[in-house]
Design brief:
Helix content is 32%, strand content 23%. By secondary structure, it is an alpha+beta fold. The strands form 2 sheets. Strands 3-6-4-5 form a 4-stranded mixed β-sheet. Strand 4, helix 3 and strand 5 form a beta-alpha-beta unit. The protein is globular and about 40 Å long.
């Protein structure tokens, strides 16, 4: 502490260098207990993209599997596909919110997150993430739902919205 001001140095990970999204864990609070950052800062010139709660559904609408690990892996694959359609990638994620249909699904969901984050964030620098254990989701076979938020440079989002790629994506849906 210098003159009553706490100074924190923030070092972006290599994946963050291009986006300038900053993720950090300041002193004065306990370190994260899992793969998340306490704080994420989005610089000016970025559009926030909200990702609706995703289920572990394959592109044809069928459930990827009965367990939380399989469903979570599919959810992360779906999130990556959605991000790519917006000209973004996992490095643009700033927030995730995980909902589980019971504590018995925690371990499977965590295993899928560890597996996916090892690929997405090999050097750390995770988005914020909260986990809620609920009595259930919208149907009994669903074990996990994850929603999120990404920050994409405004020019990328504008180019996609104005360009042929967005038209092609909407046609495919």
């Amino acid at each position: 502490m210098i003159d009553g001001i706490l100074r924190v140095t923030v070092h972006p990970t290599p994946a963050e260098e291009g986006t300038m999204i900053r993720r950090w864990n300041p002193p004065g609070v306990a370190p994260p207990v899992a793969q998340y950052s306490h704080l994420v800062s989005v610089p000016a010139g970025h559009d926030l993209i909200m990702i609706a709660g995703q289920f572990g559904l394959l592109p044809d609408g069928t459930l990827a599997g009965p367990d939380a690990q399989t469903q979570s892996l599919q959810i992360y694959a779906n999130i990556e596909t959605l991000l790519r359609s917006a000209g973004a990638g996992p490095e643009h994620l700033v927030r995730l919110f995980t909902m589980l249909a019971g504590a018995e699904h925690l371990e499977g969901s965590r295993l899928a997150r560890h597996q996916t984050f090892a690929r997405w964030y090999p050097n750390g620098g995770y988005p914020t993430n909260s986990i809620a254990v609920l009595a259930g989701l919208s149907t009994p076979e669903l074990t996990v739902q994850i929603d999120g938020m990404a920050a994409v440079p405004a020019r990328v989002a504008t180019e996609l919205a104005d360009g042929d790629l967005m038209h092609e994506i909407m046609e495919a849906v």
